Amino acid sequence: MSSSSSRRDNDSAGHGAPPGVTEVAWTTHVSIDTQLLERLVIRHRERHRRYHRIEHVEAVLGHIDKLATEEAIDDLGAVVAAALYHDAIYESQHPANERASARLAQRDLMTLGWEPSRAALVGTMIEGTKTHLDPPDIGTAVLFDADLAILGADHAGYQSYTSKVRDEYGHLGTSEWVAGRASVLTAFLERQMIYATTTGRERWEEAARANITAELTELTV
Questions:
Q1: How many angstroms separate the CA atoms of 113 and 124, rounded?
Q2: Which of the listed ranges 2-6, 10-14, 43-47 does the model predict with the highest average pLDDT?
Q3: Which of 6, 166, 190, 219 has the least C-beta neighbours within 10 A?
Q4: CB 69: neighbour CB atoms within 10 A?
Q5: What is the mean pLDDT of residues 48-58?
Q6: HEC states along the chain?
Q7: Interatomic CA distance for residues 199 and 104, integer angstroms
Q8: Is 154 exposed, middle or buried (0-12, 13-18, 19+ CB in 10 A)?
């Protein structure tokens, strides 16, 4: 996986275009066969998505790339596969997106020849992104931190993120949105640490708490 590439995936794997971030990650860590990747990218470009799109996947992959230089990951390929699939199925009104995404990942990876136990590890990592709590190993901790890195973004990045998430929950009225969002944000602040790795805490913990606190203030004014 190369963090130096900032090109976007084009539904063009195999069609002569330069490889994008997700294609490089896939062919390096998952499989040289990109047919299932093309289907996965299409999922990440569904029209109802605003934040949980291919750009989010690319960002998570980039954060994993950087965290992997500081954290001792046993199976980087499994972490990358989990990142690629962790929002493969996403509907804001669906309570089991993570489980459905995990099942899809396991099925696809075994189709590609992965050992069942390794595919199951990827599925477990993905299901863990429902809460981002108690990662059992460094690889899972890196996945969680990379997924939550947006909480520690600069002001413009954080504002863009919150706006897109609100759009994804457009079916909720203002009062429902405020109550639900405030509950999620408060839960993050109540954690002893938001980030599970030492590197993640050093990079994003302070900024994430400031961003979340500011958003909570705006929501409850």
A1: 18
A2: 43-47
A3: 190
A4: 8
A5: 96
A6: CCCCCCCCCCCCCCCCCCCCHHHHHHHHHCCCCCHHHHHHHHHHCCCCCCCCCHHHHHHHHHHHHHHCCCCCCCCHHHHHHHHHHCCCCCCCCCCCHHHHHHHHHHHHHHHCCCCHHHHHHHHHHHHHCCCCCCCCCHHHHHHHHHHHHHHHCCHHHHHHHHHHHHHHCCCCCHHHHHHHHHHHHHHHHHCCCCCCCHHHHHHHHHHHHHHHHHHHHHHHC
A7: 30
A8: exposed
- pLDDT for the residue numbered 17: 55
Answer whether 103's CB lies under 8 Å from 97's CB.
no
Dihedral sign from CA coordinates of 186, 191, 192, 196: negative
The tokens of 162 are what? 């919150």
Please list, in sequence order, all residues whose beta carbon lies within 8 angstroms of the beta carbon of residue 80, skipping any fewer than 6 positions away: 1, 25, 28, 29, 30, 61, 64
For the chain, give the number of residues. 221
Phi, psi of 45 (to 5 degrees): -110, 15
Which of the residue ranges 9-23, 75-89, 111-125 would you say has the lowest mean pLDDT? 9-23
Mean pLDDT for 179-201 is: 97
Please give the model's pTM, rounded to 2 decimal places: 0.91
- Kindly provide the b/e burial profile for residues 176-185, where b requires at least 16 CB atoms within 10 angstroms of the residue's own CB: ebeeebeeeb
